[in-house]
Amino acid sequence: MKHLMTGTLLLASSATAHAEVLAAAPDHYELKQEAVSTLAPGELWDRLIHPEVWWHPDHTFSGASEHLSLDLKAGGLWKETWDDGSVVHGTVLTVLNGKLLRLDAPFGPLQDKGVNVIWTISLAAEGEGTRVTFTETANGTAASGLGELAPAVDYVKTDAITRLVSED
């Protein structure tokens, strides 16, 4: 079963984000979000590798983005650490500085589903700015209910890309 959902958000920086649930079924989903930033590729990369700057605090366990960190090397962790706990949100699989970051990243409600989630973030120069693309593929069993979760994950990742390309 394939569902298609498309949305466009206007950003404060006048850029747009385009988001799609490319496929969704009980055992998998595929998502894609794209946006263009006025920031040069190097500037956007520097922002990307500091999730504490752009990730929304509502999508953390602690409620505070400043508790996030990213160890930018294969095997490194995107984690959240605070006084009462800690969580690994993702493990870095690939780093191509300034161009690509790929994580094994079962964020939030996906962690207890026992699913495999690969999140790829790519950057490419576009004019004087940068096109950033998020793609995410999740696979599990039919009991995972991934098709039902896909719109919520798409919402979170669309919010994330919107915040990433924003210059605020």
Amino-to-carboxy terminus distance: 39 Å
Helical amount: 10-25%
The main pleated sheet reads as:
9 strands, antiparallel
Our count of helices gives 3
Approximately what portion of the residues adopt beta-strand conformation? 35-45%
Strand arrangement across the biggest beta sheet: 1-2-3-9-8-7-6-5-4
N-to-C SSE series? EEEHHEEEEEEH
Low-pLDDT stretches: 1-14
Give the helix/strand class: alpha+beta
Backbone CA Rg: 15 Å
Number of strands: 9
Q: Give the overall pLDDT as a whole number.
A: 90
Oligomer: single chain
Globally, the shape reads globular
Topology:
Layout: E1 5-10, E2 16-25, E3 28-37, H1 41-48, H2 51-54, E4 68-70, E5 77-82, E6 85-96, E7 100-104, E8 116-126, E9 129-139, H3 146-165
Antiparallel strand pairs: 1-2, 2-3, 3-9, 4-5, 5-6, 6-7, 7-8, 8-9
Describe this structure in words.
There is one protein chain. By secondary structure, the chain is α+β, with helices and mostly antiparallel strands. 19% of the residues lie in helices and 44% in strands. It has 3 helices and 9 strands; from the N terminus they run βββααββββββα. The termini are far apart.
In short:
The protein contains 3 helices and 9 strands. With 168 residues, the chain is α+β, with helices and mostly antiparallel strands.
What brief labels describe this structure?
single chain; 168 residues; alpha+beta; 3 helices
